[in-house]
Fold each of these.
Amino acid sequence: MTVTLITGANKGIGYETARQLLELGHTVYIGARDTERGEKAAAELGARFVQLDVTDEASVRSALATIDAAEGRLDVLIHNAGVLETTLDGPAALRSFDTNAVSIVRVTEAALPLLRRSSNANVVTVSSSAGSFWAVNNPERPEFNLPLALYSASKSAATMLTVHYAKSQPGIKFNAVEPGTTATDMTAAFGIGRPAEQSARVIVGLAVLDESGPSGTFQDEAGHLPW
């Protein structure tokens, strides 16, 4: 059975991704900072819960140790936890980069020993076309007028980290994904987005790649994205 960890999975896209992967037969670990919310989500879905704050080294190490003890390996890691800051200042920048980019290093490094024990390891980074230089400089794209500098910059970093991990870990597939603008708590203030179910399908598609699947890519539902 495929063992999967999804960060920030107690709601939104992460929650729906967990539901779809459970339907495919995965053993899914819901990683969530808030224990009560995480346990509730896991119980609703029939998943397993692990307390995981991606901004806290000790929490990350403990979560992966729990999975190691129970499963002995990790087949799929989905970096889904993220924040969207609308304020542009130093503290907001630190929060944005710590959650959206630094956490990828923090969680991946803790997970690598478990991923290396998998016969088909997939790591998926939920990134954004808002972090694409091509998109934000293209007047025909909605990202051209998106006033979210910190979100865009941190997601650009997330995609770059994914590419470098793909190069340095050839035995593991690393791919970044733009899941589509989704109606979640993060986008509620903008009143935009499609149902999480649709966007989760894009993530699931990369999470279930077989051994011949690509690595080091940035994709949306239509295929490869320039960035």
Amino acid sequence: MATMRAAVLAAPHRFDLREVAIPQVGLDDALIRVSRTGICGTDIHIFNGHYAADRLPLVPGHEFAGTVAATGAHVKHIKPGMTCVADVNIGCGECYWCRRNEILNCPSMTQVGIGRDGAFAEYVCVPARLVIAAPDNVPAEVLALTEPVSCVVRAARKARATFGQSVVILGAGPIGNLHVQMMRLCGAAPIIVADLSKERCRLALEVGADAAVADPARLKAEVLARTGGRGADLVIESVGSPRLYELAFQLIRKGGHVAFFGLTGPQDTVPVEILRTILEENSVKGSVAGMGEDMHDALTLLSHGRFRTAAFTRSIFPLEQIQQAFETLAERPKDLKTQIVLN
């Protein structure tokens, strides 16, 4: 049986580099030879044992790019050798939610690298209908950003972000930085970022934020000063902190919108002033993962250079050093993304 190298998370905080069987390709599947895979915040939660601990041992990894290595007998639209990325949200494809591109609500939904083995391996197998052809002239390290960019594409779509909106983004980490760039593409202004890290505030300013606040005590005054005293049209929480979600409601204007994006624990809640929400016509929308057309749109934007990617692509580790890559993430705030080289 043909084998491949894979980083298996055997237990929280412990990767084992193993030689495992290359996945079997079903009639409707595609086998992808992985080039690059990025480390996502979800992967960090899995590594730390805060998420999907019941699914270990597991090969994580869902932000990847590669080439088609083989296809099942029923697959006609893609061929071996094709450069590609893939949607990692797998639904049944037939239910009410799948028809509406709300795959996360599908009763049989699973995700590559979370609910099934993923792309911290030389090969990954996915349903062929989720494989997306990518331009050969875009570097693999940029293509591997398609999935995280699709997440901010969907968040912007769900929040109905548009020209001239004032936006506050809570968190200037990797996904917060991408939210800044997405809001700039949508024509939002001003864009105000808040993060405790001065380095990440600086990086946010470099990619288009109009203001970046590292002192929490200054944030509300800054927002009011830049929005004519009204508050923001839109606040995006991209950290996953109940305290920051509560703060988001204090930063929106009357009739404003809070985008729920950062993942919290299942037990976490946030108080909402019901009467104020009704009378001011405020709104809330949740979003976390890009899927379907979000992936295609993200690939188009990346292929045409609409995102600045240097801080996402300069930190590279070989598969053999994946344990070190995870353990040193906090020591490298200038690196918004770390990628693992597979092939």
Amino acid sequence: MSRWLLILGCFALALFVPVWGLWGEEENVLLVRTQEAEYDEKTGKIVAHKATLSWKNLEVFCPTLEVDVKAQEVRSSGDITALLDGLTVRIGSLSYSRKANALHVLDLSGTGKDMSFGAREGLFDFLQGVAVFTGNPALTFRGFQVVFSRAEYRFAEKAWQGQDAVVQREGWRGSAKRARYTEGSSFLILEGEAELEREGNRLRGERITVNLDTLQVKVEGNVEIFLVPPKEEAQ
């Protein structure tokens, strides 16, 4: 028992004292809480049960959490749930590196009151205050779905932005090199060779702004309007 307490105390000093030292300066570190932990002498690792990882407006709940004391890394898999600004996100697995101060996650799917989100892979960079998603990340809100090749979420602004965007809505279809949406706002912004087709008419420009309340569309920069005739019905 005394050996276990000694090991746990050393672990706490090695991992958490440096973290608390940084907190007052940058507030960019991850906090780990747990109800119970066990040390495995064979592997030299600590297994925490019902653990919570917290950082500002992100909380991750793990049924079990494996801590590699030597490598200063944390891993978990299974029924992982995260809360992110009103989104409840299911995660397949995660790993955290104290050296990089980054949380790597796989197989995300999230739902909220007015939004849903999914991605194959994500990296939460706590130093930069941004989460980067890859693997066809998709964001659905206000009847629109936007699929990216790569997307970012900035915690401070609660803003989503991504590259190679494809936009869909019933009766709508569009694309752009970049797309931006800020949670709670009324506008979806498409930039860079932006194109939007609605009811057979196609709009093209450098920037397209969609008012999500009124569904009005504003096109700017080298605007082109294609009036597509209706298709003839097959006889």
